Amino acid sequence: MRARVSAAKARFLQRKQSVDYTLIERDWDDYFENEAPNNWREVFHPLIVGTTRDVNDVWTAELGIQFNVQNWLENAALELEAYEMTFAQPILSTTQSDLFALLKTAREEGWTIERLNNGIDALWDVYLRDEALTDEEREWFVDRRPEYRIENISRTESMHSANWASPQLFRAYGAEQHEWVATNDARTRPTHAAAHGQVRTIGQPFEVGASLMLQPLDGSLGAPAGEIVNCRCVTAPVIEEGQAVGEDIREPPRTALLDRRFAESTEERMLRQTQQRGSEVGAMIRLDGEELIGDMIEGTTDRIAFPDEWIDILSTSDKEYALTHTHPTSKSFSVEDVQELIDLPGLAGIRVVGADGSRYAILKQDRQPGFYQWQKEFDKLFDEGAPSWGRRIVSGEVSKQQAQKALYDEVWKKLAPQMALDYQSWGAADA
Length: 431
Prior knowledge:
Strand order of the largest sheet: 7-6-8-9-10-11
Number of helices: 13
Shape: flat
Radius of gyration: 27 Å
């Protein structure tokens, strides 16, 4: 936020005008509406996914079942995204309200930019030193201090995330109910000790003191900080004797890569990053469960270099993988994309996500042509289709970018069968 204030200051000095607080307010409004939610999601997504995997490992071992949690994560993408905002939204609302009250005072009293910066710093300190706060409430705010305490927030929220993930997984296992389990030692709150043993249908609230909570650390129904901070309670699935739980975890077919929803959660995150920054973003995914290998990587506006460790895996592993990446231009595959598919034995297929939401996929079959053969054919088909699209550009029927996008798609639809490749596209014809 201080950076935004300083940037505004630079603009004002350049124009040799007094501080325009209306412009600052508009800039802050834009940040809270458009950037802040996604910034918080990016911070919490790896924590929530990692915690969910850990919870699944614990309970599948405890119950002696098998469950493909990665498939579940992909299918629950919308639920994950909604949950990622449940923690962030109260912080964003409180921070926005306090900052705009500060800005109102600055405008009325004619503060300088330096004084406004100091006021922002003081605001964070007020959160921490307010004498009206109890020790538990102060710790609540300390752990959630914006920007400066991201690491502490992540540590605190790991327990919150685990308790959110548990009932979601229990339901996926086939359980319909879960039970509140308190630690029951000297540190346990009396209200939580009293809740110990309560059984509820998943999605129905527990009675915890005077509050209702869907699971430990849940504040969505209005539970106060005193029932949430430092809570160590969990829930356990209620499974009747002989009840079948778990799932069939047979590996999905290779053709899953040709499904538009393949790795949907990962590709949606890549898409948001490309739309925000204008750069290519890539990820490597195992076909047997769509497991993300390592972290997503970012390139430039028109290319991305996959790490050497990915290339080593794709060159030597007996497992099959997919590479997916974004194209800011929303065009289909480049020649270089498909060359990598041909050259790397462990690479079963590649996908492209366009900045406009279009998607393209190529799956490798058992035999592939040599590089020079298909590159020559690509150039031939491209040259054959270019004139007609050029005329449509001149007539104003389509833009240059739309023509390039459509032409690339046309070429690969014709070329892929000749090259023993399966090709699919979604949204390629959209204007």
